[in-house]
Each structure stands twice: as C-alpha cells, then as structure tokens.
C-alpha cells in the first residue's frame, strides 16, 4: 500500500468510533473475553505450542474454575476430548508446574488425584479431559504423545475502524514497511522514525515473547531476514524505546558481538531460534514497522479522546522471562550446584571458578531446564576447557561435545531440558578458564 493513498483514506475515516474487543487474525472471540483457535489436527505438545506461537499466541492456560469450565465446554462442543494445556510440570507438586505464558508457577489447579505425576523425563506435559468422569480435570503425560488436540489462546485487541489495519494485535495496528511503499534510501533509522511520526505512528517496540512471535509471523513467507526496532541507545548498550514505553523485556542474541546504537531483530525463518535482537549502526538500511494504537483516529488529525476499555496493555511478565541483565548469574563454582538440577529462563551459567585460569578440579553434571514447554537454547559466550563439555538432550542424545578454546557457539536442544557434564581436572594445568553460557527458551 502506498502511504499517500493511506493518508487520503485516513482523512475520510474520522469521527467517533466505539472501541470493541476483537481478536488477531486467525483467532475467534469467545464470550467477549478470550481469543481462541481450535485445533484442526492432533499434535505432540511442542508442535501444538509452536502452532499457537506462530499466530502470536500460546496453548491455552486457565487461572480459575470458571475459565476451566468455559474452556472445557467449548472444547467439548468442538469435539476435542483431550486437549494439551500451556503448562509443564517438573515434579510431583503443583508448585513445580509452570505456565507457558511466562506468568510463573500455577496458582489455580484442577489435577486428577495423584497428578501431577512425573515418572520419566519429559512426562510433565499437561492435558485436560473434556468428557467422562474426569471432566475438566488435568493430568500429566509424556510430551511426545501425539493423539491429543489443542486450543490456542491469544491476546484480545481492539477493533479498528480503518480497513488498512490488517495486522491488529494486542491493541495495536502494525504496518510492516514491505506492505507500504517506502523508497529504499528512506529506510535508515532516523528516516523511518520520521516516516512513522509523520503518520502519527511510532516505530515498533516489543514487550513480550508473544509479540516477538507475532512479528516473526508477519515476516513468515517473505524473504526479509532483518527488521529494525524502534530502539535507540544514547549511551552505548543502554537502549530505550523511541515510543517512550519502558524497556522491560528484551530478547538479545547472546552470541552477537555487533555494536551500534540501533537494534535489529532477526526474522530469518531459516534460523530456528530467530526473533533475537542485536545491535546495528543506525545508518543501516532495513525494513521496519510502524505501529499505532488500534481503535484510534489516524494520521495528522486531532484525536478524539478514546476510552480504550480494559485492554491489558501491560501484562505481568514472569520475572524469569524478563531481561537477562536482571536475572541472576548462577556461578557453578558454588559446589552445591554440582550434580543438581537448575531451572532458569533466562539465566547465565559458568563453570567452576570461571574465569580463573586455575579452576578447582571437579567432575560435575548439571541438569538445566527452561520454565514452560519451550525449547532450550544454550549460548556459550566464552569457552576454554581442556576436557570436553558434553551436552545431552533429555533422552540422552549427545547434542554437542567440544573442548579447548572456541569462538562463541550455540546448542539448540529439542526440548526444554539438557544435561551438561564437565570435568575440570586438567583445566588448571592447561590454564583453561572454563565456560560461560546463557540459557534462553526459544
Ligand atoms: C510459516 O508459515 C507456514 C505456512 O503458513 C507454516 O507452515 C509455518 O509453520 C510458519 N512458520 C513459522 C516459523 O511460524
Ligand atoms: C512422582 O511420584 C512417583 C510415584 O510415587 C515416583 O515414581 C516419581 O519418581 C515421582 N517423581 C518425581 C520427579 O519425584
Ligand atoms: C525520502 O527522503 C527524501 C530525502 O530525504 C525526502 O525528500 C522524501 O520526502 C522521503 N520520502 C518519504 C516517503 O518519506
Ligand atoms: C558428581 O557426580 C559424579 C558422578 O556421579 C561424581 O563422580 C562426582 O564426584 C560428583 N561431584 C561432586 C562434586 O559431588
Ligand atoms: C530423542 O532422541 C532422538 C534420537 O535418538 C532425537 O531425534 C529426538 O529429538 C530426541 N528427543 C528429545 C525430546 O530429546
């Protein structure tokens, strides 16, 4: 679409408009409250979650008995007998069950007696039964079960009067530059910021994992691999969103060493863990996205004061999903961590006595899990060992083994858990400082 046409259309579409709840594309609104997609097919848990994420949503979660009942009825009406929930349990107590939406341990539960019950690795996926004696009850099961249906849930948004608001999500209209007609030379950071501002919009700022997923979804099927974000650093490494919103969530690529005062998001679908951000110089010519609040009058005109009715703009994010900067570094030098299980998402781990050139000698195994039913990405940012560091998937498949000195590299696990083993017995003798790695869900 051409921006001048856009402008003209906008001028004719003014006036009062009552905001109404609606749903992003693909979702349907139920009870004027929840945006849902009902499965067309049965899938394994992770596949189902990925399907939901590809629409900017997640497997459904419930926080109270009323919602549990409502979801149960809807699913039963759609003929779905067993449905995956957006939850993963790491142990036999409900306080070890985490929601995939990043909101932390569950506060409401409706498990069958004897559940959650974790007998084997990767048996902590949760499903709901929608008929029979155990109607509405939850159970845990192996995540690899493939005969279960699912239900995706996404954020509600606000209806927009303007037909050019094709990408309406979480209360915003998104305008990706490839759908507009912007001369290439105008696609540097400062030029794009002024283009968005001219049309009373802002450059894209991102505030949740789901929004990352949604932006990826906008670029799926295009050959665009990078998109600029509306962030700018006044002081190196200290970014602020140009729309004035708080920089609370981040998704930096731990392996990127690029420097610059602007940010780019990788939307390359060839990369499994895409969606991550890295620094770029602001003169880089790139695609971008302009964003405005949905349900508002548009473009260079006085805005009607608008009552945006309870759109949850600032969802509470599990602190564990917030900035890596704020999350704690677990220094495995604390010998009590040796041979233990660590839950973190995100977080940083380092080997014994890192970065000392003469670490103590210790053989350790660490089991590491990211909260929720995501895949685990392990990003070694510094690597210098004598004996190899072995990384195993949850079913014991060797994913990586490297030794000596290495440039930064990543290991992408097939599930939410890995096991790392390392023997530092010869590290001191050969002056190896050990490793540091960032753990992120993707
Ligand atoms: C991209 O779109 C295709 C076709 O709609 C879909 O099958 C695929 O899962 C999507 N990929 C991602 C990463 O969402
Ligand atoms: C959960 O309980 C079962 C049955 O008592 C037991 O076999 C299993 O090891 C327990 N799982 C965990 C993770 O403690
Ligand atoms: C692109 O940049 C040129 C030169 O700065 C400017 O004259 C022109 O108006 C810009 N075009 C758009 C669509 O912003
Ligand atoms: C960790 O476990 C391994 C294998 O079971 C054992 O050899 C090693 O001594 C343990 N390390 C510590 C510090 O307990
Ligand atoms: C289990 O192992 C097989 C190969 O042996 C691998 O293809 C599969 O991805 C693994 N699954 C998990 C969840 O680790």
TrEMBL record:
What this protein is called in its record is C-type lectin domain-containing protein
Q: Which domain of life is it from?
A: Eukaryota
Q: What keywords are annotated for this sequence in UniProt?
A: Disulfide bond, Signal
Which positions make up the signal peptide?
Answer: 1-18
Domain CUB residues, every copy: 338-442
Q: Which InterPro entries match?
A: C-type_lectin-like, C-type_lectin-like/link_sf, CTDL_fold, CUB_dom, Snaclec, Sperma_CUB_dom_sf
Q: Where is the C-type lectin domain?
A: 31-144, 169-291
Q: Specify the taxonomic lineage.
A: Eukaryota, Metazoa, Ecdysozoa, Nematoda, Chromadorea
Q: Does the keyword Signal apply?
A: yes
